[in-house]
Specification:
34% of the residues lie in helices and 15% in strands. It is α+β, with helices and mostly antiparallel strands and 160 residues long. The protein has a domain of 110 residues: Alpha-Beta Plaits, CATH 3.30.70. A hairpin with a 6-residue loop joins strand 2 and strand 3. The longest helix has 25 residues. The chain is elongated and about 100 Å long. The structure holds iron/sulfur cluster (2 copies). The site of one iron/sulfur cluster has 13 residues, from helix 2. The site of one iron/sulfur cluster has 15 residues, from helix 3.
């Protein structure tokens, strides 16, 4: 009989403890998110999908120096083909490919770029059905001048 009473009392205490924990968390703001209906607030330096910027006149900001290729820890992830303009003698970037499926988003390429031509965007929903569709060519990577300027402004604010 005494044993049954003790068990009942300890059961009541445990229920009270459980209820106290529920009440403690009930009034706290939720830390989970109803994704994908609600999107997370990303930190300012979030490193998402890479993109190539253009100048205000629509020309490539990239000068084809290939520093990003050298600094990327994943071999052959960035591939760049260049040629030399016979008239201006300037390097022309013919092809620029990034295999985003293999990218580890370390940001090395964006840090090393002397022209800030390659940047991280806040795009993170990159899932796809094939690895091939995650290989982005120059056209897919290049942003128009307006978007490019927006990203430049954002990057400048981060530095300040
Ligand atoms: S973020 Fe890192 S892994 Fe991805 S392309 Fe740039 S250097 Fe390579
Ligand atoms: S993106 Fe930057 S680092 Fe890479 S080739 Fe172009 S200018 Fe050079």
């Amino acid at each position: 009989m005494k044993n049954a009473v003790n068990k009942t009392i300890s059961g009541i205490i445990e229920i009270a403890r459980g209820m106290a924990t529920i009440m403690k968390h009930f009034f706290r703001p939720s830390i989970t998110l109803e994704y994908p209906e609600k999107k997370p607030d990303l930190p300012p330096r979030f490193r998402g999908r890479l993109a190539l910027l253009t100048n205000s006149d629509g020309t490539d900001a990239c000068i084809g120096c290939k520093s990003c290729v050298k600094v990327c820890p994943c071999v052959d992830l960035i591939q760049i083909e260049t040629s030399k303009d016979p008239e201006t003698k300037k390097i022309v970037v013919e092809q620029f490919t990034i295999d985003i499926g293999r990218c580890i988003f370390c940001g090395n390429c964006t840090e090393i770029c002397p022209k800030n031509a390659i940047v991280s965007t806040d795009e993170f929903e990159l899932a796809d059905y094939s690895r091939e569709s995650l290989v982005f060519d120059k056209k897919a990577l290049t942003l128009d001048p307006e978007k490019s300027q927006r990203l430049r402004d954002k990057k400048e604010k981060e530095v300040k």
